[in-house]
């Protein structure tokens, strides 16, 4: 089983698009994927919906789709006080778009000014006006802040057709500088801009660089063909380096290539080469610096790229390379990693000295306060000051606060205080957008519900956010309760911020899999904030963000049936996710730290990191020196959240168990092929 698990989730790690939620000093990352499937509302709240109204609402929408507009008008009249009535009216107007006058369109927009439904209608109406080439009307209805790329291009076309060419030309350059292919609506404004002689070789080059960095090779091909002959030769060099970055030396041999082109191609090529052949970059780095005369910003960019690859590779020369290439500690990123690698190597004197080089604002961060104290204790110097730092940290509810309490042998501080009872959500519930969000949520239309909620709360004060958090919690909408609480000044209501959601599923599943329920809660909160319909950009789905391939393998190992669509079902997702945690625990000999890392980054990567170790390592050092920022913070958040959930359940647990104090490759995984 261990060998098979090594292959599970090889590419599971999600490396971009995370929402950060402040948890005191603790940052909890939430994958900011899309959301598709319905979310089940709390039964008590769902009972508030009048079945007859809901049926009429749904029947009216069906009538509109079928073109039965008279019947739909009757339904709209009967639902005139229903929160979603504006959506029915919007769909009716869509059906009559060709007969609609500007006066009628303006009337709808004025009656629903500032709402989501008005934004949606405006975009549809503007697209209609553009198709009809009603350019003056288009300009009168256009609002820049509610514009897509296509609408913005149609706006530029409207300016051209209305004799405002100069204004249009001034706004076209930012449009051009896109890594993506632009909509057809952009053809006319771009053509006029080029005809005005405003497309320079430099702007063409900038867009080509953007496109190739984003792997948009069809756009690179197109721009290559459109470039002037002199620039085409430069692009040819760029594309050659893309395919064979090891050939960077040919840039120097090309005397016709201007220095700024050489530098841009070299920057791109070195970054690609560092990913493919780091040893070659390290070998030629001094000559690259001399050959391409990089400016300070370019050198810093490349040093950070090389450093990341060195650290990820576990190369023993990483620390010496950092010292050589940033001797004075001017680059904070490189200096921080110099400190961490010194700690990893047990070079505490160097670590303490370099900690003193950090900018003062960095030195005050919990992470560096902790390591300053840890170094002083190891070196047995300045211990009074270090104890003061640890004492201050131990009073804070976050990962480093819990670490400090562990070192001092003191109880953890949780500071759980319920939201003041005088907080009244009545006024908030009277807002039309909040009412619409609630109905959509109760109907399971999660995308529309989130859209209305985010629109309604986007300008809230911290006090309003705690009101919103309390309201969402009452509905059972835990994701929004967590997010709104994080934006408030009141962060000590742990029941709001760490809800015991899906308790009827999690508790039996935890018992069946012998996995701590607090850990399941912590992972689920970190992965989706209890949004059962969450989908990440990497394709992970549901409460515990399982990728279909991983879920299928877990189900087979556990002897469970599995259908891809079931990942959006809370019971199925939690069952499979808990089995996966249990299987990872088996693989890593009961070590939750390693299993948590594997849940995020995949067992393959965790075993690779462990194989790079010379000896067993203290768990706090191991976590802070992992090469992936996301995984480091993921483990910290899950450990801290798990401790908080244990506290809320009335259980007394440690941040880590005794067998997790030292991190090493488990004996049952040592021979596993990676």
TrEMBL record:
Annotated Lytic transglycosylase superhelical linker domain residues: 428-494
Domain Transglycosylase SLT, residue spans: 510-615
Residues annotated as signal peptide: 1-36
An MF annotation (GO) of this entry: hydrolase activity, hydrolyzing O-glycosyl compounds
Keyword terms, alphabetized: Signal
Superkingdom, taxonomy of origin: Bacteria
PROSITE patterns in the cross-refs: TRANSGLYCOSYLASE
Matching Pfam families: Cucumo_coat, SLT, SLT_L
Single GO cellular component term: periplasmic space
GO biological process, one term: peptidoglycan metabolic process
Similarity remark: Belongs to the transglycosylase Slt family.
Identification of the protein by name: Transglycosylase SLT domain-containing protein
């Amino acid at each position: 089983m261990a060998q098979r698990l090594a292959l599970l989730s090889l590419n599971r790690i999600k490396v971009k698009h995370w929402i950060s939620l402040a948890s005191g000093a603790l940052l909890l990352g939430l994958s900011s994927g899309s959301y598709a499937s319905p979310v089940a509302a709390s039964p008590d709240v769902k009972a508030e919906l009048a079945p007859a109204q809901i049926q009429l609402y749904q029947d009216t929408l069906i009538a509109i789709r079928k073109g039965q507009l008279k019947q739909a008008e009757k339904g709209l009249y009967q639902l005139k006080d229903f929160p979603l009535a504006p959506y029915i009216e919007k769909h009716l107007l869509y059906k009559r778009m060709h007969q609609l006058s500007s006066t009628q369109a303006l009337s709808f927009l004025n009656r629903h000014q500032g709402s989501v439904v008005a934004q949606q209608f405006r975009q549809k109406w503007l697209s209609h006006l553009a198709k009809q080439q009603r350019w003056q009307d288009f300009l009168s209805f256009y609002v820049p802040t509610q514009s897509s790329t296509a609408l913005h291009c149609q706006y530029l076309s409207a300016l051209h057709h209305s004799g405002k060419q100069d204004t249009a030309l001034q706004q076209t350059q930012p449009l051009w500088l896109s890594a993506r292919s632009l909509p057809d609506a952009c053809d006319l404004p771009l053509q006029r801009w080029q005809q005005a002689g405003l497309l320079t070789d430099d702007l063409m080059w900038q867009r080509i660089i953007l496109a190739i960095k984003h792997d948009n090779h069809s756009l690179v091909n197109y721009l290559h063909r459109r470039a002037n002959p002199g620039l085409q030769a430069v692009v040819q060099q760029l594309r050659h380096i893309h395919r064979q970055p090891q050939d960077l030396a040919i840039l120097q041999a090309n005397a016709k290539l201007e220095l700024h082109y050489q530098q841009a191609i070299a920057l791109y090529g070195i970054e690609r080469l560092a990913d493919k052949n780091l040893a070659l970059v390290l070998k030629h780095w001094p000559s690259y610096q001399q050959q391409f005369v990089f400016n300070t910003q370019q050198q810093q960019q490349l040093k950070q790229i090389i450093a990341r690859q060195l650290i990820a590779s576990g190369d023993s020369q990483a620390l010496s390379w950092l010292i050589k290439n940033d001797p004075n500690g001017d680059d904070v990123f490189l200096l921080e990693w110099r400190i961490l690698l010194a700690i990893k190597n047990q070079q505490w004197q160097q670590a303490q000295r370099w900690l003193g080089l950090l900018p003062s604002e960095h030195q005050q961060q919990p992470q560096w306060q902790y390591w300053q104290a840890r170094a002083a204790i190891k070196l047995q110097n300045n211990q009074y000051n270090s104890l003061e730092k640890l004492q201050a940290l131990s009073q804070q509810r976050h990962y480093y606060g819990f670490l400090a309490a562990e070192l001092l042998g003191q109880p953890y501080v949780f500071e759980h205080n319920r939201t003041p009872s005088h907080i009244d959500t009545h006024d908030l519930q009277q807002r039309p957008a909040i009412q619409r969000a609630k109905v959509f949520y109760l109907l399971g239309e999660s995308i529309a519900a989130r859209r209305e909620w985010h629109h309604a709360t986007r300008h809230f004060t911290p006090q309003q956010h705690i009101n919103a958090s309390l309201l969402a919690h009452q509905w059972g909408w835990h994701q929004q309760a967590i997010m709104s609480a994080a934006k408030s000044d009141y962060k000590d209501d742990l029941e709001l911020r760490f809800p015991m959601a899906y308790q009827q599923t999690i508790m039996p599943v935890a018992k069946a899999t012998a996995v701590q329920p607090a850990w399941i809660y912590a992972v689920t909160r970190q992965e989706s904030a209890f949004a059962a319909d969450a989908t990440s950009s990497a394709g992970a789905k549901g409460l515990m963000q399982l990728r279909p391939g991983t879920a299928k393998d877990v189900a087979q190992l556990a002897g469970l049936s599995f259908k891809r669509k079931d990942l959006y079902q809370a019971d199925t997702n939690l069952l499979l996710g808990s089995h996966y945690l249990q299987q990872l625990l088996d693989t890593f000999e009961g070590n939750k730290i390693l299993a948590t890392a594997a849940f995020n980054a995949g067992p393959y990567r965790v075993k690779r990191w462990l194989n790079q170790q010379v000896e067993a390592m203290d768990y706090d050092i191991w976590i802070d020196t992992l090469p992936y920022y996301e995984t480091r913070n993921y483990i910290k958040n899950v450990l801290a959240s798990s401790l908080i959930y244990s506290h809320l359940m009335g259980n007394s647990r440690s941040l880590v168990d005794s067998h997790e104090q030292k991190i090493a490759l488990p004996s049952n995984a040592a021979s596993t092929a990676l």
